[in-house]
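User: Can you fold this complex?
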Amino acid sequence: MIKNGFIMNNETQIKVGPPLWLLAELTYDCPLHCPYCSNPTELGDTKDELNTEQWLDVFTQARAMGAVQLGFSGGEPLLRKDLEEMVKHSRELGFYTNLITSGIGLTEKRIAKLKVAGLDHIQISFQGADPEMNDIIAGRGNAFEQKFKMAQSVKAQGYPMVLNFVISKQNISQVEDIMRLSCQLNADYVELATAQYYGWAYDNRDHLLPSQQQLIDAEKIVNEFRDKQQGKGPQFIFVTPDYFEVRPKACMNGWGSTFLTIAPDGSALPCHSAKMLPLKFPNVKDKSISDIWQQDFSFNRFRGDSWMPQPCQSCDEKEKDFGGCRCQAFMMTGDMDKTDPVCSKSPDHHLIQEAIERAKNPKNPLLERVNKRSIKDADIVQIKL
Amino acid sequence: MINQSVPPSLNAMFRLQWEQAQDCYVLLFPEGMVKLNGSAGEIMQLVDGQNKIADIINILNKKFPDAGDLTDDVHEFLIAAYDKKWLYYE
Ligand code: SF4
Ligand code: SF4
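Assistant: Here's the predicted assembly.
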């Protein structure tokens, strides 16, 4: 039940703040084929995508509610020809605008046009430290060269730049080279992020998940490198997979607390992978953002703690991690209401241990992300890494 | 660090803006936001590459005559802000 922006649970009252972070997934279309992609494996149809006017309206509504960070993402957002128009509109509204791109499709000219439109920051993802590694993971030739050139241009044109390296079993041994590359490119922040196992990445987990030893080695290299930096150069952020933790991550800072994702077709989600859950999510074509955020059943479903099962319900850490990730609980146990199996207190924790074991000897073939409505046998490509 | 002879400038990585919904000044940067408290907001507003530290103190002392001398507060904040790389002297 909701009263004046307060959700009334039986025993708890939670004030719903604004969706500070709005992620606009403009399209699921993408020129790359990364096996770690966290997009849903059912990619939907591009003709259901929101049009320009609908997106502009989403930004206006969300800004009026107090949203301040706006990420243009996908798929590859550069495939939208109206990107500049969206940047301009949202920048005028006062958003801090972030472009999250693979770098494919960028040109010096487009970087300049986006700057004029008011874009604040560009994040480019890389798949490895050199063309060989990068392009085999990305599933496209010359991808590295293109990214490298565009990263140089982004900095030359005065943007803050974040580089994002998705770390997996395949490229984790390159971590030092990756850090050197980031210095060479003059990045401001660098995310060394082990893949999150959703979407395509979940199906490919056995091929991606590094071993604990690999992670320990990599972390040591990262720390040594940081010590030598003496406060200069890029700020490196190393994100380890939660599979090796004993407590889950605080999922999205709490379900429906900060993050709002709008999928290409207008579905509103509390996180970019929530669509897999057996919940009916609202669509911005039918409802206002404020109704969605404050009143929709799906957004209220995991707010507060009255939904929590044991051991979370009586756990004194529930304010810290909110019982962990709902998608992870669902993917691994089939029940979205369960404690995240990453937690060592979860009765399902053994599932994580088993997944780590299986990743030592992957049996199923590696799937390349394909941009079709669903995967057919013929689309399954086995790539050797 | 603090530099009396060169005016401090806002690091290009950050954007300073008044946020109605937060009722305060915020610093925005790639995928993040820092909320500034009242006095931090007043000081950061004056970090524009024009005002030297003495100017900032003067302006604030005039604006808040009842607050007493703000020299120490401004210095303390600017040192912290420099460490966080919000500003630079050039
Ligand atoms: S039992 Fe639940 S609330 Fe407690 S630490 Fe584990 S996941 Fe978090
Ligand atoms: S449940 Fe949470 S962290 Fe997990 S994938 Fe969904 S919102 Fe993200």
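The first strand of chain B starts at residue 8 and ends at 10. The mean pLDDT of chain B is 91.
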